[in-house]
Amino acid sequence: MALTYGFVKCIVAGAPKLQASRKKNETQYHLHVPLQFTDAQGNASQWDSAINVGTNDSDDLLRYRLAFDFHHPILQQLRNAPAGFNELTAAKALPALDFLRSDVLAETGSFRDTDVMDGSEQAEPIPTLLRLFANAQQANASVYIFGRTYSEGGGIHDVHMNQGSTAPFLNDGVDDNNDHNDTWQDGGVIVDLSDAGVAAYFTAFTQQLVPTDNLGNPVAGAHEITDADPGTVPP
User: Fold this and answer.
1) Cα–Cα distance between 206 and 58 in angstroms, integer?
2) Number of domains in the chain
3) Quick check: helix, strand or coil at residue 146?
4) Is residue 145 part of a domain?
5) Burial status of residue 189 (CB atoms within 10 A of its CB: 0-12, 13-18, 19 or more)
6) What is the pTM of this model?
């Protein structure tokens, strides 16, 4: 079964903060970006976001694409969407993201690996993202963050590829009690700076393997994602 997934259309409401989250075998680092949106009824909401920027594990780096000339038909759908959380849990097509089953990563450049993180803000992509979010806040730009909602409180996380993980994150199609793989539930960040262009940030962990089956689990002989993999799995 699918986890709650979609994108939040919002503006940046404050300075991002780098935070560490200790997992079983590694420490993951996220930029927590405060978000704000006002719904159609005029109700203002504050959300948190946890955007993955790397790990301290040299065997499980974050592989990312950061494009400042993002251009894709999905933009018109996003611009037409209402402010706030737009749920796409059951969607099997854009604007839900699937790096392998859509062309959303087309013409976004090559994947780069993050450095091994040590808790500082010096390693890329952190400095570039901090500048991007600062520019977005100054311009009051629309920001679209794709991922899964917090189980408690307003927020969005899993802002990375959400398929191709091995145990204990395999999707059995039944249990929703823990994080797991799925198709059409990949995370990402798109920042619409209007005349200054559109920026996009897409990531996957190097321990996530592709291609994947219709549950989002890696198939036999799967490998780390490369520049040749996006868009190669039939929808």
Assistant:
1) 10
2) 1
3) strand
4) yes
5) buried
6) 0.96
Instruction: Report the candidate in 86, 66, 91, 48 with the shortest Cα–Cα distance to residue 235.
Output: 91
In a domain, 232, yes or no: no
- CA atoms of 162 and 181, how far apart (whole Å): 6
pLDDT in tens, 25-54: 899 999 999 999 998 888 899 999 999 999
The boundaries of the domain holding residue 155 are 5-224
Chunk the chain into consecutive blocks of 10 residues (it has 235) and report each block's average pLDDT, rounded to whole numbers.
89 98 91 95 94 96 98 98 96 98 98 95 97 98 97 95 91 74 97 95 98 96 98 95
Give a yes or no: residue 118 inside a domain: yes
d(CA 188, CA 102): 14
For the record, the structure tokens of 50 come out as: 């946890």
Is residue 159 domain-resident? yes
